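Suppose a classmate hands you a notebook page containing two proteins, each written out with its sequence and a corresponding row of structure tokens. How would you begin to make sense of it? This section walks through that situation. The first entry is reproduced here exactly as it would appear on such a page.
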Amino acid sequence: MDHAAVLALFERDLREGARPDGPGARIERVGAVVRRTAPAHGWNGVVGSALEASTADAVIAEQTAYFSGLGREFEWKLYGHDLPADLGRRLVAAGFVPGPEETLMVGDVAELTLDTEPPEGVRVVAVTDRAGVDLLADVHEKAFGADASRLRRQLLERLTHDPGTVVAVVALAGDEPVSAARMELVPGTRFAGLWGGGTVRDWRGRGIYRALVAHRGRIAVDRGYRYLQVDASGRSRPILERLGFAALTTTTLYVYRPVR
């Protein structure tokens, strides 16, 4: 895989050419910024930017004013190759709080190991309704220790109104949900994004996460997608590398919460 070429394609298709993906979502291109606005329970933020050092602070101020005017918390998704090179420092100075740095990893499906199955006694089931969403959200809360109320609403809306753009699965050991993940399919591009893969603590280290990556990868192949992309944590990166994914750059979410 030509890493530079694939990163350029990622930029063109998923950042510069971002598309609205969910009820009420809207993509706006304002000067050098591509931003996504959505209802308060959705994801609001800056998807991409091409800033000059001389005007970056002013552009940041414009975006904070815009989202603050909507009363919305929002995120600025910063990639390691974004300019200016000190954009992260500028965001912090403007009141943003950075999350953990992750690694953008991409795999060409023709080069990935996608024949992995879950361990004995564990089966993978599709999430298609409210009951399935509740199972997935419960796993998310246990695996990540984070509230999943927004995820519940967002995923149920996608499955109801635009089911062809999202795939969600839960791994069950008997009747116990032990792992879950989703995949977002971007029409008109060659990329499918893997998101939210998490396993409850007592079931980690048994290959379930790896199996869910492979399961979603096979679905992406069947639907004609060429690349899988993941924002990988330090825990998942080694697993993805063994499956054939390559690290292209880093990514960090900077969160801005308006003063109320």
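The notebook's second entry, a different protein, reads as follows.
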Amino acid sequence: MRRDGRLSGVLHVLLHMAEQRGPVTSEVLAKAMQTNPVVIRRIMAGLRERGLVRSGKGHGGGWTLARDLSAVTLRDVYEALGRPSLFAIGNRAEAPACLVEQAVNGALDRVLHDAEALLLARLGEITLAALSADVHGRLGRCSGAHTTESPDVT
């Protein structure tokens, strides 16, 4: 089953944006995420609605961060993406007549609910500032072998 990589991709882009001195265009971000600029504009519009990014039009326009990295959690970004499914596991049938399947569904539903609550709580504890600090620590250990200067770097 295919995994949803939007959260990872958007976090990647936001961290690159944090390294920029000015706005970054949808075209540059699309290149970094290996997608179409229309997809980027749609994703970034959701982030803008949540107050995570700003957009400017015209020459010199593009996307910028609207909040300090320490004020944005991974959960904030996850929710701005529309709360995509966290797990690929699901029930075979939602309203089964079979008592065995009802028992299986009940057990899975409880476990998945608990796991989701734990994951969301943890996502709420990690800020973009913490990720940025991790990136800069890795850069220091790599002696500049990899850079964050351009959103084109993956």
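A careful reader of the second entry would note: The longest helix spans residues 99-123.
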